[in-house]
Amino acid sequence: MNYFQTAPLFQLYGEQAGWPLAEMLHCETIASRSRLHNWHIRPHRHAGLYQILYLHRGRAIVSLDQDRPIIEGPAAVEVPQAYVHGFEFDADCTGHVITITNVLLTQLAQRLGTAATPPPHPVLHQFLSGEHSAGLHEACAHLNAQYAARQPFREAQIEAWLTLLYTRLRSRTADGTQPPQAARGLQHYARFGELLERAHSRQHTVAWYARQLGLSTTHLNLVTRTHAGKTPLQLIHERLALEASRSLVYTSMTVSEISDALGFSEPAHFTRFFRKAAGQSPRDFRLRVSA
After folding, report:
1. Which of 204, 41, 57 is closest to 141 using CA atoms?
2. Of 87, 96, 108, nearest to 39 (Cα)?
3. Cα separation of 32 and 81, whole Å?
């Protein structure tokens, strides 16, 4: 599978570098980034991030894999990690974009209970009730203000406004019948993601990850397919490819040095892996992105 051919894999749109580890959330207005790209955010994907777009006013075309629905404010779009998505905004659009790491999202969902489990697929909310959307607009505005201000009790206030925003969205989708297995599956998926972050450079097998988590390989496969739409091996390869691309772009390490750092037995094996993932050799990728 060519993971990069369909759409680039970014932390935030147009960026391949993350933000500091202490910042598990990013908040900005729609205009702040979209204006830089002529109000057109081309299809792309995020690794390990969940994104909420709240459109307060205006009209936008949303790309979600092969679908292109049109939304008008007030509306919201939730996009789980790895889903190809993009936006074409009218120039008068107002609203906010909140990007949340899966670690923070998992902690929030676990604290709120099974009804707050994040949906495994993109969700579009088109609001007809002014009262409901006004609450979302207030939460987004306060969240953005606290994120930018860095005032005392910043983290507590960010958490409070994020919780309000997220529970308002989940109240529209939760039916109260979600089984406990769904919450356990989310916990397993979060633990797998955390383990993958720590161990991706050691070239472990799916069976190794399953053993560390106390699961069978079949169960782990079910967990990742449910919460990410992908197999564990696909996620392992994506994480390796992402780390390789970061090293090629942001370091002066040679291809041989990157190969060693990521646990490949020899550079030729790394080159074959990266060519399959990115559609081009490591050297060609480095030349293209630095041009």
Report:
1. 57
2. 87
3. 22
Give the separation between CA 122 and CA 190, rounded to whole angstroms: 18
| E-only strand ranges, 58-215 | 59-64, 70-72, 75-79, 85-89, 94-101, 123-126
| Contact assessment for residue 57 and residue 93, using Cβ atoms and an 8 Å cutoff | yes
Topology of the domain covering 9-173: Jelly Rolls (2.60.120)
Give the 3-state secondary structure of residue 263.
Answer: coil
With DSSP H G I counted as helix, E B as strand and the rest as coil, what are the percentages for the chain, rounded to 5? 50, 20, 30
Site of tokens 């190809």 = 84
Question: Of the candidates 128, 170, 139, which has an alpha carbon nearest to the alpha carbon of residue 54?
Answer: 139
Q: How far apart are CA 255 and CA 235, in angstroms?
A: 22
Residue 199 to residue 209: CA distance in whole angstroms: 9
Domain locations in the chain?
Answer: 9-173, 180-290
> Under a CB-based contact definition with an 8 Å cutoff, are residues 10 and 249 in contact?
no
Residues comprising the chain, all counted: 291
Question: In sequence order, what are the beta bridge partners of 45?
Answer: 9
Mean pLDDT for all residues in the chain: 82
**What are residue 115's phi and psi, to 5 degrees?**
-65, -15
Whether residue 61 contacts residue 87, with contact meaning beta carbons closer than 8 Å, is answered with yes
The answer to whether residues 98 and 140 touch, using CB atoms and an 8 Å cutoff, is yes
User: How confident is the model over 137-192, as pLDDT tens digits?
Assistant: 999 999 999 888 878 888 888 889 999 999 988 887 764 334 445 456 767 887 88
Which DSSP symbol is given to 174? -
Which residue bears the tokens 């720590």? 198
Q: What is the pLDDT of residues 275-289, one digit of tens each?
A: 998 889 999 988 887
Could you say which architecture CATH assigns to the domain 180-290? Orthogonal Bundle (1.10)
Q: Pseudo-torsion of CA 272, 274, 278, 284, nearest 10°?
A: -90
Question: pTM of the prediction?
Answer: 0.57
